[in-house]
Fold this protein.
Amino acid sequence: MALEIIAGCVNCWACVTLCPHQAIIEAQPHFLIDPLRCTECVDAHATPQCAAICPVEGVIVNELGDPLNPPGSLSPPARFG
């Protein structure tokens, strides 16, 4: 069980300070998640903190490759009227 940061991450550092297990590693071309440290926050929070703070859609994925912030999830709702 571990999350993964994939291409598209902008290395903004937001996730680094929130990770309760210091699992985010500074790297190039984008940050990485140490799978030995990542617990997906199941022991500390209702949602993974890296995904909760990440400003980019689709760059944090679960072990199946599914994005925790899929495209459109961070966009404001459409207004009607």
